Amino acid sequence: MSRYRGPRLRIVRRLGELPGLTRKNTKNEKPPGEHGTKLRKPSEYAKRLQEKQKLRYNYGVSEKQLLRYVKMSKRVKGATGEVLLQMLEMRLDNTIFRLGMAPTIPAARQLVNHGHICVNGSTVSICSFQVKPGDIITVAQNQKSKKLVEAHIESPGLANVPGHLELDKKNISAKVNGIISRDWVALNLEELLVVEYYSRK
After folding, report:
1. Which GO terms describe its biological process (predicted)?
2. Could you tell me if 19 and 61 lie in one domain?
3. Looking at the structure, do residues 118 and 172 belong to the same domain, yes or no?
């Protein structure tokens, strides 16, 4: 099951800032649990596991889905870690979040699942749908859908729209102009450690 329903700030305390999971900030910097105050040097496996968990929780994908993305990225020409991030960033639910149409990725997923989002004029209800350069993303032509998006588009979860996306706030539509570059990925992550984690799978 890909959706995490537990306490989100607990995950943020453990893994660090995850803009796709929640907009809330925690005042407590210590890791969760009764042993959170004890500082231990993490093992090499623990470091790789932590980086992998950051991807899982930020993008809201299951272990099975993430493993599939890693295998797909290995078959594509280029740095495996960078290709993996590009695949996750080009998911429809993440694209809706990056455009500011939803406050978090789980909220964007709900918009897509409920049929409020259209790609190239057709309603798409699959969150993992990969948007491509040239795709036009719009909101369904009904008042309920527009109100849901308008409430969030003025105060987006992230300050800037990535360079590969073009947003038209007036018509509530967007165009995908290219593939996202690594510089625009809003996550403090060492993707090479994620690839190393799955290297023995």
Report:
1. ribosomal small subunit biogenesis; translation
2. yes
3. yes
Q: Is the pLDDT assigned to residue 1 strictly greater than 60? A: no
Residue 192 corresponds to which amino acid?
A: L
Least confident span in 2-6, 119-123, 143-147, 194-198: 2-6
* 138-143: long-range contacts, CB 8 A cutoff, minimum separation 24: 138/171, 138/172, 138/173, 138/174, 139/101, 139/172, 139/173, 140/115, 140/116
Would residue 2 count as lying in a domain? no
* Structure tokens that stand for 48 in this block: 């790789």
Residues 118, 162 share a domain:
yes
Which CATH number does the domain housing residue 156 bear? 3.10.290.10
Nearest residue to 157 via CA among 3, 5, 27, 18: 18
Q: What is the mean pLDDT of residues 180-187?
A: 84
Structural domain containing residue 132? 91-178
- 100 & 142 share domain: yes
pLDDT at 159: 65
Mean of the pLDDT values across residues 123-147? 89
User: For residues 131 and 176, is the Cβ–Cβ distance under 8 A?
Assistant: yes
Maximal CA-CA distance, the chain: 54
